[in-house]
């Protein structure tokens, strides 16, 4: 027997712990080595894939391939077209290459490209190529038009029916593809509760030329969203300073657009809306009632004001859930820079003049003078 049983027991436990620690260290080391091998494999595989994607599809193939880049094509669209025509291996790699190199200025047109071309040769070609000159048809979207009206305008200029166009404007897959393309413009807010049509307010009013006999509905609509993205992008820094979302901005601009006349001061109309919001007053703007009703009328009746809808600003405070029309740039400027005033009311006369007042008494007086007694 040992002279010191306690000491022997202590040494035994110490030895066991030492052996356990060695086993744990071996396990940890083994796991680390396995993870390192897997991670290295992923990194190596990813590197080899990207390296291959950056290289020409076939350095020996000099056969010309006819490629058409439509008007209004985004970088993503161009990349997909090139991959579909087997000019590049991976559209995502090409897209990120363009962004990394900060390339821009691509032109619509008909090109003859080759599978042997490098990325830089492809980029140079689609920047210097001949732009298609012959406009087959064009579509003009006036300011203040709603989605249903835009569908009608496009239908009148193409062989597509209003229903086909309107269905595409509300097609989830199409909207999601546009969101992926323009994430700063088409945010989650377009799908928030009670929004009537996700793309309402997001097609910029302008004249759009088309250079194909029969472009797809997507090819007709995307330039309108592209233009909207370009316009709104100019104001993003100011929106961030004001902590204002793009959706709020576009919605406010749509209200201003619908209330404005040729002789009206949009900055003052904007100030009335913001002043009322600050005082937690309902905006009480007639165009929201008409939008809720889904009608176009010259005059809103008292019974119309009772329509049960989140868009009815006679029933709800704050802005409606989303835009009620597609605003022009003057309304965007006004939405961002309201004139500093104390006005809480405005009234449009039959002559198109807009009278601004500070109190309900003044507003009713103006209404009696210019509306009721006229």
TrEMBL record:
<feature type="transmembrane region" description="Helical">
    <location>
        <begin position="27"/>
        <end position="50"/>
    </location>
</feature>
<comment type="function">
    <text>Functions as a peptidoglycan terminase that cleaves nascent peptidoglycan strands endolytically to terminate their elongation.</text>
</comment>
<keyword id="KW-0812">Transmembrane</keyword>
<dbReference type="InterPro" id="IPR003770">
    <property type="entry name" value="MLTG-like"/>
</dbReference>
<dbReference type="Pfam" id="PF02618">
    <property type="entry name" value="YceG"/>
</dbReference>
<dbReference type="GO" id="GO:0005886">
    <property type="term" value="C:plasma membrane"/>
</dbReference>
<feature type="site" description="Important for catalytic activity">
    <location>
        <position position="259"/>
    </location>
</feature>
<comment type="similarity">
    <text>Belongs to the transglycosylase MltG family.</text>
</comment>
<keyword id="KW-1133">Transmembrane helix</keyword>
<protein>
    <recommendedName>
        <fullName>Endolytic murein transglycosylase</fullName>
        <ecNumber>4.2.2.29</ecNumber>
    </recommendedName>
</protein>
<keyword id="KW-0472">Membrane</keyword>
<keyword id="KW-0456">Lyase</keyword>
<dbReference type="GO" id="GO:0008932">
    <property type="term" value="F:lytic endotransglycosylase activity"/>
</dbReference>
<dbReference type="GO" id="GO:0071555">
    <property type="term" value="P:cell wall organization"/>
</dbReference>
<dbReference type="GO" id="GO:0009252">
    <property type="term" value="P:peptidoglycan biosynthetic process"/>
</dbReference>
<keyword id="KW-1003">Cell membrane</keyword>
<keyword id="KW-0961">Cell wall biogenesis/degradation</keyword>
């Amino acid at each position: 027997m040992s002279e010191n049983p306690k000491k022997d027991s202590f040494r035994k436990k110490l030895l066991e712990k030492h052996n356990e620690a060695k086993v744990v260290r071996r396990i940890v080391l083994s796991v680390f080595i396995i993870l390192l091998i897997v991670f290295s494999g992923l990194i190596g595989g990813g590197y080899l894939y990207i390296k291959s994607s950056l290289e020409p599809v076939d350095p020996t193939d000099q056969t010309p391939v006819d490629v058409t880049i439509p008007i209004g094509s985004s970088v993503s669209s161009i990349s997909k077209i090139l991959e579909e025509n087997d000019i590049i291996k991976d559209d995502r790699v090409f897209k990120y290459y363009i962004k990394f190199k900060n390339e821009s200025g691509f032109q619509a047109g008909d090109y003859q490209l080759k599978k042997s071309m490098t990325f830089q040769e492809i980029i140079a070609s689609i920047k210097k190529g001949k732009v298609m000159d012959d406009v087959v048809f064009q579509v003009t979207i006036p300011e203040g038009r709603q989605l249903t009206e835009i569908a009608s305008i496009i239908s009148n200029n193409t062989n597509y029916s209003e229903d086909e166009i309107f269905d595409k404007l509300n097609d989830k897959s199409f909207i999601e593809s546009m969101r992926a393309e323009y994430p700063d413009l088409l945010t989650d807010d377009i799908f928030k509760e009670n929004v009537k049509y996700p793309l309402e307010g997001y097609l910029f009013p302008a004249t759009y030329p088309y250079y194909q006999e029969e472009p797809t509905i997507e090819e007709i609509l995307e330039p309108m969203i592209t233009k909207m993205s370009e316009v709104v992008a100019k104001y993003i820094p100011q929106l961030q300073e004001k902590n204002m979302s793009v959706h709020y901005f576009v919605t406010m601009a749509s209200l201003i657009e619908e209330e404005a006349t040729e002789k009206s001061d949009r900055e003052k109309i904007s100030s009335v809306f913001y002043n009322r919001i600050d005082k937690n007053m309902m905006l009480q703007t007639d165009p929201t009632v008409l939008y809720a009703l889904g009608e176009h009328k010259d005059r809103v009746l008292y019974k119309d004001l009772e329509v049960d809808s989140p868009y009815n600003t006679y029933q709800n405070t704050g802005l409606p859930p989303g835009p009620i029309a597609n605003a022009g740039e003057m309304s965007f400027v006004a939405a961002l820079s309201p004139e500093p005033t104390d006005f809480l009311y405005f009234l449009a006369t039959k002559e198109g003049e807009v009278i601004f007042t500070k109190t309900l008494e003044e507003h009713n007086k103006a209404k009696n003078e210019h509306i009721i007694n006229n």
